Amino acid sequence: MILTGPEITAAVRDGRVRIEPFISGQVNPNSYNVRLGETLMIYTDRVIDAHRHNPTRSLRIPDSGYELQPGELYLGHTQEQVGSDIFVPLLFGRSSVGRLGLFVEITAPIGDIGFHGQWTLMLSPIRPLRVYAGMKIGQIMFFLSVGPVDLYHGKYQDARGPQPSGYWQDPIPAVAS
């Protein structure tokens, strides 16, 4: 089951969902709009290596906006800190942003119960596209979980700003012979 807009508002008021800052005008019929934060992160090596830490550079989006380029992966973040210890959050790009040719969070939309922080956004444009800090970039929906809950305590907890991949820190499972 998915929370409706009025239920998202009620859940924020009673603490079942945390959205900071919460703006009632960003509540949709069954989601909450999130805005693009002011920082973008870009991997600096030509090849990204999944088995090592990859260097990045960060930039602040100026008031005049920043032009995203096709073929580049940008890590952005939500202005809002969002999370819940009860509901499963899912983040998707807004359809109006998709119609501009920007893929937002298409490979990892599910959040863990117990994660609280700014969400890192994977941004990939089809054509050059100017984006602005504060623009509505995505929407988060909240789903009811069933069964015992094991809260998230991972490496991205309390994230502020875009977070590069920590995949290289994950242990490689042994291969059975």
TrEMBL record:
It comes from Nonomuraea cavernae. The keyword Oxidoreductase does not apply. Gene3D superfamilies: 2.70.40.10. InterPro entries: dCTP_deaminase, dUTPase-like_sf, dUTPase_trimeric. Signal peptide: none annotated. Keywords: Hydrolase, Nucleotide metabolism. CDD domains: trimeric_dUTPase (cd07557). This is dCTP deaminase. The keyword Coiled coil does not apply. NCBIfam families: dCTP_deam. GO terms for biological process: dUTP biosynthetic process; nucleobase-containing small molecule interconversion. GO terms for molecular function: dCTP deaminase activity.
